[in-house]
Amino acid sequence: MERADLDRALLQAHEDKDSEELVRLFTVAGDMAEETGNIDAACFYLTHAFVFALEAGLPEAKKLNRRLAERGRAHPFEL
């Protein structure tokens, strides 16, 4: 996915209040940043994905928390 397309999709998901799509898209953004070696940006996006997953009670929260904890950006939770 191109960055401009991702940005448009994120804005639309926010407008639609679509938590599942926000989790997916912020995870994609985190993965893209991580692929370029930008761990700070990756963790920024993954944190957003984690918060939306928590708010929506989605199972992705567990994996996102683990990814952030592995990078020293969160405490591991038992979810």
What does this structure look like?
The protein has one domain. With 79 residues, the chain is mostly helical. Helix content is 76%, strand content 0%. It contains four helices and no strands. It is flat, with a radius of gyration of 12 Å. It starts with a helix and ends in a 9-residue tail after the last helix. The chain has helices at 3-16, 19-35, 39-56, 60-70.
Short recap of the structure:
By secondary structure, the chain is mainly alpha-helical. It has helices at 3-16, 19-35, 39-56, 60-70.
What is the helix fraction of residues, given as a range?
Answer: over 70%
Largest sheet: none
Strand proportion, as a percent range, falls in under 5%
Find the count of extended strands (DSSP E, 2+ residues): 0
Q: How many separate structural domains? A: 1
- Distance linking N and C termini: 30 Å
Which word captures the global form? flat
Q: Class by helix and strand content?
A: mainly alpha
Question: What is the count of DSSP helices, taking H or I runs of 4+ residues?
Answer: 4
Q: Helix and strand succession?
A: HHHH
C-alpha-based Rg, rounded = 12 Å
Low-confidence stretches: none
Give the mean pLDDT. Answer: 96
